[in-house]
Amino acid sequence: MYQLGGLAVTLVNGLLGLILWRRLRAASPRYGALISGLCAAGLLLATLPALLMAAASFSGLRALQRHAPEPLVLMAMGAQVGLLLYGLLLWLAALASAAVRALRRLRPPRDARAAIDARTATNTQATAGAQADPTAQDIRTPGGSETRQEAVDERRRRLVVGATWALPAAAVAVSMGGVLASRQRPVVVRLALPVRRELTSLHGITIAQLSDVHVGSFMDAERLDELRDAMNALRADIHVVTGDLLDHHVSQLELSTRLLRGLRPARGQLFFCMGNHEYIAARSAAVGTIVEGLEEAGAQVLVDEAREVRLGGDHLWMGAIDYPSRARPGEPARRPTRDGLERALGQMRDDGAPRVLLSHHPGTFRTARELPFDLMLSGHTHGGQISLGRIGDYALTPMLPAGLYHNGHYEHRGRRLHVNAGAGGWLPVRINCPPEITLVELVPA
Predict the structure, then answer these.
(1) Exposure letters 16-48 (e unless 16+ CB within 10 A, then b)
(2) Mean pLDDT to the nearest integer, 205-210
(3) Partners of 390 in the beta sheet?
(4) How big is the CA angle at 273 (ends 271 and 277), to the nearest 5 degrees?
(5) Whole-Å CA distances, 150 to 26, 145, 155
(6) What is the per-residue DSSP string for 65-77?
(7) Residue 20: closest CA among 170, 178, 180
(8) Are the beta carbons of 39 and 20 closer than 8 angstroms?
(9) Full-model pTM
(10) Is 218 a residue whose pLDDT tops 90?
(11) For 307-357, how does the pLDDT look when each residue is reduced to its tens digit (9 = 90+)?
C-alpha cells in the first residue's frame, strides 16, 4: 500500500514539475537554462521521500529520516508539501477562471444587446469623424491605436509573468514557513470545565493534555525535552497523554518512557490511553511489552476502564477507551467502541463528580455523546496540520477533507469534546496549526 502511495505521489510530482517548468520557461525564455536547472534540483529534492517510499515502502522513508541530515530531510518534506500546494493553487486558479467564464456566458441577453449597441454607436462616431477629417484618420489609426494596444499587451505580459513566478514562490514560502512552525514551542490551549459549586476541592484543579508526539518521526531527544519542559511549566495537577506517543516501532519505547519519567504533575497522576500507533509499534514486539514499558515509566494505561482520582475531600473520574479498530494478526481482540464506552463509563459512579474520558480517536464522540460524561479529550487528527479555518463544526483542511471533529472544542447537549492538534505529525509541516498542549481547568459552574 505504501509503495503504491509513493508511486502515485511520484507521478503527481512529475506532472506538477513538468507544468511548473513549462510555465516558467514560457514566462521567462531568456533564463531557460537557469530555470531548467532549478526545476530539476527542486523536483529531485521534493520527490525524494516519495521515490524512496515507492522503492522500499515505508522503510525507505524511515531510512531517509534516520540516515540523512535533519536539515535535508526537513527541506525535502517542505519541498514536497510546497509542490503539492502549488498544484492546489493551480487547481483553485483554474476553478476561479472557469467560474468567471461561466458567469460571462450566463450574462442576461439585454446586457449583451446593450454592449453591442454601445460598440455600434462608437464605431459610427469613429466613422463619422474619419469622414470629416481623413488626414486625422490616417494619423490616428496606424499610430495611436497600435500604441495603445502595445501598452495593454505589455501590462498583461508583466502580470502573467508575475503570476507565473508568484504561485510557486508563495507555495515554497508557505511550506518552508510551515516547517519552521512545526518546530516551535507548543501553544497552550486553555479550556474551562464547569463543576458543581459544592465540590470546592476541585475548583482550580488543572489537567494538561499531550497527544500525538510520534517519537521517532521527526521527534528527537532534544525536541522531547522541549515538550517535557512545556508540560511541566504549566504546573498542572494531572497529566494525560491521549495516544500515539510512539510512532511505529518498539525501539521508540526508550525515548517515550524517558519523556514520561520527566513529566511532573503536581498531584502525581499521569494517565494514558492507547492510540493506533501504539498498536503499530506493537507489531515489532507485543502489546503487553508496550503497555508494561509505559506503566513502568509512571503512566496509568487505561483500556476501557476508569479510575477514581481523589483530590482533597472531593474526587473526579478519569476513564479511557481503547483505540477503535479491528485487531490485526498478532494483536489482541478489541471491544467494539460502544462496548468499550459502556464498560469505562459503567465504572464511573453517578455521584455528581466530573467524568473525564480519554479517547485517542475523536470520531468516538459520535457514539459517546449520548452517554453520561462531561468531557472527552482526544487527538489523532493533528488538527489537519494545514488549517484553513473552521465553519461551525467543520474544520477546513486539505489533509482531512471529510468528517467532523478535527480540531478544537465541540459540544453536543452538554457533552464536551476537545481535539488536541498534537505535538508531532505525519510531516514536519504545520500551517496555521501549531503544536498544542491543552490545559483544562475545573471551575465552579
Answers:
(1) bbeebbebbbebeeeeeeebeeebeebbebbbb
(2) 98
(3) 395
(4) 135
(5) 19, 9, 9
(6) HHHS-HHHHHHHH
(7) 170
(8) yes
(9) 0.83
(10) no
(11) 999 999 999 999 999 998 766 665 667 788 899 999 999 999 999 999 999
259 torsion bin: left (phi>0), alpha (psi -120 to 50), beta (else): alpha
CB atoms within 10 A of CB 324: 19
Identity of residue 396: L
Q: Is 204 a residue whose pLDDT tops 80?
A: yes
Cβ partners under 8 Å of residue 337, min gap 6? 321, 324, 364, 367
**Which residues, listed in sequence order, are joined to residue 195 by a DSSP beta bridge?**
444
Residues contacting 60, CB < 8 A, separation 6+: 6, 52, 53, 54
Burial state string for 391-422 with b = 16 or more CB within 10 A and e = fewer than 16: eeeebebebbeeebbbbbebeeeebbbbbbbb
What is the average pLDDT score of the chain?
A: 87
- Find the helix or strand (DSSP H, E) in which 444 lies: strand 436-444
CA 255 to chain centre: 24
165-184 burial, b for 16+ CB within 10 Å, e for fewer?
A: eebbeebbebbbebbebbee
Using CA atoms, how far apart are residues 236 and 85, in angstroms rounded to an integer? 39
Strand order in the sheet with 305-311: 305-311, 314-320, 355-358, 375-378, 415-419, 408-412
CA 203 – CA 199 distance, rounded (Å): 7
Given a cut of 60, is residue 149 above it in pLDDT? no
Place 109 in a pLDDT band, splitting at 50, 70 and 90.
low
* pLDDT tens-digit readout, 420-438: 999 998 889 999 999 999 9
pLDDT higher than threshold 70 for residue 77: yes
Query: Which residue, among 6, 2, 4, 8, has the nearest Cα to 51 in the 3D structure?
Result: 6
Residue 18 backbone zone (phi > 0: left; psi -120 to 50: alpha; other: beta): alpha
Q: Which residue is listed with cell 478535527? A: 406
> Looking only at Cα atoms, what is the longest distance across the chain?
104
